[in-house]
Each structure stands twice: as C-alpha cells, then as structure tokens.
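Q: Joint fold for the lines below.
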Amino acid sequence: MTALAAIVATVVSLAALAYLAATDPKRRRVFRVAPFAGRRLVGPALAAVFLPGVLLLAFANGAGFIVWLGALSVAGWGVAALSPAQATHLRAWTKTVTAALGDGFAVSTERAFAGAAALARSIRAAGGMPRRIAALEARISALEAELAAIRESRGRSRPLPAFENDSASVAAPLETAERGVHRVPRESVR
Amino acid sequence: MKSLSQSQMKRLTAVHGWSGMLLGLLLYAVVITGTVVVFAEEIAVWSVGGNRATAPLTSELDSKVHAAAESVTKGYREAIDVWSNARGEVLIFAHAHARNPDTGQMDDIGPLIRVDAESGEVLSRNDGFVWQRADWYDPSALRHFLVDLHVQLSVPEPWGLILTGILGLAMMAAGVTGFIMHRHLLRDLFVAERPGKRLVSARDRHVLAASWGLPFAFLLGFTGAFFSFAGTVALPLLATIAFGGDQEALVETLYEPAVQTDPRPQPLANLDAMIAESTGRAGAAPIFVSIGNFGRADSRVSIWHEPPAGSLYYVHNLFDGTGRFLEKRPAIGNEPSTASFVYSLMGPLHFGNFAGILSKSVWVGLGAAMCFVILSGMQLWTRRREEERLWRGFARAVSVVGYGLPLAMLASAYAFFLSLPSADPFWWTPAGFLIAAALAIVFGCAVQDERRLTLGFRRSLAVGCLALPLLRMAAGGTSWAEALGHGLGTVLAIDLVLALLGAALLLWRVQESPRARNAAFRPLSEAAE
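A: Joint structure:
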C-alpha cells in the first residue's frame, strides 16, 4: 500500500511538473520555442505537485512521503533535463510504444467508449427531438413572419439577415457532430 | 534573498569551487560506492546465493539457540545475538566483553556459530574477537569490501571514518554555498542544458542537477557525517565528559534497558513464541534478536523488526525471560523523546531501506544524481580554466576517476567470483579493485584523445556489465532456475540490471554522434556565470 500510494502520488506530481516545464517561459525562450499560447495555470499545477505529498503525510504514511519526495527530486530533474525537442521525441516514442503494445486493448476500449457515447447521444437526441422540432418550427414561423413584415413595410426585397447566411456554414459541422440531427445555430433556437 | 556583492560572490564561488576541487574526487568515490551499497543486502545475496525458502528467524529458532547456549561456557551467555546472513543461514553469537589486545579497545569475544536454518545443523564455529574476522560473519567478501569502501574508503579506523565525515560536511557546505550563489534557482528550475557543448551548457547541466538534488544532498551529507563522527568523535567525547571515559557504561545507558541484577537461574521461555508475538505487535518481519543474561532471572530478550508498512523506523520490542512483553523501546534512552525521534530518522534517511526495493531504487537515483552533480561541477570548473595545462590535466583525472571507479568496482566483483573456487575472496576482491584502478590510470595516461578515452571506458564498462552474470554462473553461482526455486528473485533482478546497464552503455556510445552534430545549433546566448 505504501509503495502503491507513493507511486501514484509521484506520477500525479510528475505530470504537473511536466506541465510546468512545458509551459515555463524561460525554458521556451532559451530553446526558441514560441511562448505558451494559453493561460499558464501555475497555482493549480503547483497544488497538483505538492498535494499528493501532503495527502501522504496526512494519512500517516511517512515512508511514502519520503519516497515521494526523493522520487520527485530525481524524476523532476529528469523532466527538466529534457530539452523541448527531446521531450517531443519522447512523447512521440511513448505514443508509438503505447499504441504498439496496447493496440488491441486500446482499439477495443476506444470502440466501446465510442459506442457508448453514440448510444448516449442517440438517447439524448431522441428524448429532446420533439421539443427541438417544436422550437425550430416556432422560430422559423417567427422569422418568416418577420421577413414578410419587413418586405411588406418596405415594398422591395432586401438582403437576408446575417444569421440566415451564417446558418448554412454553422449548421453543417454541427450536423456532422450531432450525427444527423438537423439544427440551425443554437443562438437562433434559444 | 538579499543579493550578494560582486566580491562576496567571488569569495563564495572560490569556497564552493576549491572545496569541490580538493575533495570532489574523494566525495565522488564515497557517493558512487554509497549508491551501489544501497543494495548491499541484495548484492550479498546475489553473490553468494543460498536458500531463502525458509525464513531464518521464524523457523524453530528456540531449539537452535538453546543448543548453541548449551555448547558455550557460562561467561559467554552474557549476551547472545541472533541474525541471518546473506545465505539464509542463522548466526548465533554468544559473547562477553573483553579488551582486545590488538586494538586496545573493549570488544565482543566469544563463539560465533553458523547454523543451517532448515535442519539446525551446525555448519561452522569460530571463537575469538569476531568483528576482526569478516570471513567469519559475512559470506560475501564483495559486499564487505564495497561497504567498507563507502564507509571509510578502506582506510583504517578511525581515520577512514573521520575522512568520510569530513566529506559529508563538505557535501553539505557545497550544497549551502551553491544555494546562496545561485540567485535564480527557481527561475532556472526547468532550463535544460543548452545544446552546443558550450560553457553555458556545462553550467546548465551542473546547476540543474544540483538544484533538484539540493535537499537530499544536504540530507545525505548530514546523515553520512553523523554516522562517521558518531562512533569516532561524538560518543568517545560524550563518554569522556559524562562517564569518565567508560564507553561501555555510555552504551548501556543509551541503548540498553535498565535491569535489576538477579543471577538466579531461570530457563528462558520459548523464543519462537516471543518472536511470533513481537511480529504480531510490530507488523513486520524480525531481523535481529538479542538475549541478555541467558538462563538467568534477569534475562531480557530484544527483538528488532523491519519498519512496518508506512513507517520509517525499526521496531524494537522488549520481553523478559518468562516471555512477557515489557515495552516497545525507543531508539535511545528509556523514554520516547525528540532526540530519540531524530536519532531514529538518521538510519532510514541515509540508507533508504525503509520501504524495500522502492525506497532503495529511489535512493540509488538520488546517489546517481549526486555523482552527476559532483562530476559536472568539476568539469565546469576545469572547463573555465582549460587554457592552463594543469587544469587540463585535472580534467583528464576527472574523466579517469569518473569512469575508472565504477570500472574498478566491477573488477572487484570479477575478482570475487574468480577467487571463490580456490582462493581467498577477502584478499582478492580489494586486490581486483586496485589492479583495475591502476589499469584505468595507465589507460588514462596512455590515451591522449579524450573521445577515444571515453569510448574505451564505456566499452569496457559495457562488456564488464554484460559478462558478469555469465562469470557468476560459471564460478558456481546460483543459476536462474535454482534462484527461482529458492526464493531468490534478487539474483535474477541484479543479472537483468547488469545486462540492461551494459546495453545502455553500448547504446550511449552509438548515440553520441547526433549530439556532436548539434554543435552547429546557435541558441540565444546567456552568460555562463
């Protein structure tokens, strides 16, 4: 139990350290890597580094805490000592090895997850379909009425409102994503 | 932190660098041997084999100890210590205390009886001042030599211990001065070595490893110095001040339970039952049993256990001669105290043996990191002065020691296995080390080209690692099938580690050329100091 807890704690802390290393501004500057694009979450990352150690101590696992501290010292050095290029190579290599080793398992797991997700989506979509169709019909009716009113009041044709132009481009990827559920932009449905 | 003036920084750099230069190679010797002897127990088992199918201290120990006690004169029943060796045999040492004419010090004297753990058959018996004859109590000359090299650099007592104590202090001092010198420790915590093999790259390499290893460098240096100085300086000083120079009295006060003398005869209760109860209380396996005043009414039985899961400390349970549990003893004194707590932390934090293979592996990693810090520091220092011939020579010495020392340690293992069938391994193991060290120095002097020198050392190390398991088996060592049958997973594990190390060393050589190509890369420039 001591060993397992210490290993899990070290892996969690190490993942946070890897994030801190990958987003470290000086490291990126020195190795001429573009500055980190997103927001660098230093506080949560530091919490993830130290919290496992605190938890080990809190659960009276002194041995686990010392092992965690020592392992973090060595492995942290290992993480920091890799240049960004080496880290990228290592990541790619790990991915390849993982894929090669656990291909069958990964594929079956992935398929199982994908199947479950599709089923969940279908159920959700089926459940929400009548409500959505009703909302769509109502909205289309409102728009048609609005359009007719505009045409009537001005007595001539005008370019379509912007959202109507946008609806085609936005709806296409959404349709793909939602697997055949025909939708207009969410804004217009609400 | 308050920033230092330029002159202060210069002085600090001088202290840091010169102390490293003067003691660095010796410190490297202590640290690299320490890194290896973290697995001293495993190395011993690997080198001598044996049988671990039976747990030596929990299988009918009572009858063995009683038989041994009956076979010695009454005077030697003052203390009977029982433990198991690397072969899984039981060692029973019935002894008294007498002045050793060779050393002039009080010492343990008595018969050391080696017993088969399964059958109870007496395998050997040696009488005398046992601690002077390592071959009586340690079946592995290899383990004995490596531990001695780490503890006192094979220099006679007390000078070797004083030397390693000073090296421990030097390690702490280097850590502290390095910490003060390096103003951007946190900012540089993720800056890897810049390519190009420039001066700044050497600095990055040293600073990065030192920054990450700083807390444990301090810790290992402190605990190492503590162990070196405790027996040579602190305890004799304390004995002189508080006990009129009587070290026996000091040891009794610090470590042994207070007992009212009662010499009436009384048979000792069943030892196996006491061990079983003690194991139940401790929640960990027994490793050492000590019986005071065997066969008397004031008899006491001390049983030590491995640290239980999650704990850092050994457990010491005390029983009286009737088998009644008395107390769980603190490490020193008779009551739990802060001093006892701190004292009991020293061992686990230095040896890293509190959570089995996992903690030992981490300690090996820490030791390897320390070695890297020491060598990279010396390389940085000599690199800055490479214009001077003297420092170029010293840089070569760093390379020779850096590779030569592990090579010589490997050679000592070769000498051990080769001498096992027909010669004295306790003589040949250190001799093998010295011969290989001399050859490494000659090789370092003969080969002028740095690259050829490095490749030669790496290749030798690789071949040495790969061939050692084969030699071990050829010399009559435990085969893998026997090892599995006797519960000796250690044998397989060390053979595999050696094979992996050898392969890694060969690959390291191959991977060198792309790195050299990186020299063309021109990253952002940064001051090296």
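Q: Anything notable?
A: DSSP finds eight helices and no strands in chain A. The interface with chain B takes residues 1-3, 6-7, 20-21, 24, 26-27, 29-32, 60-64, 66-67, 69-71, 73-77, 80-84, 86 of chain A (CB under 8 Å).
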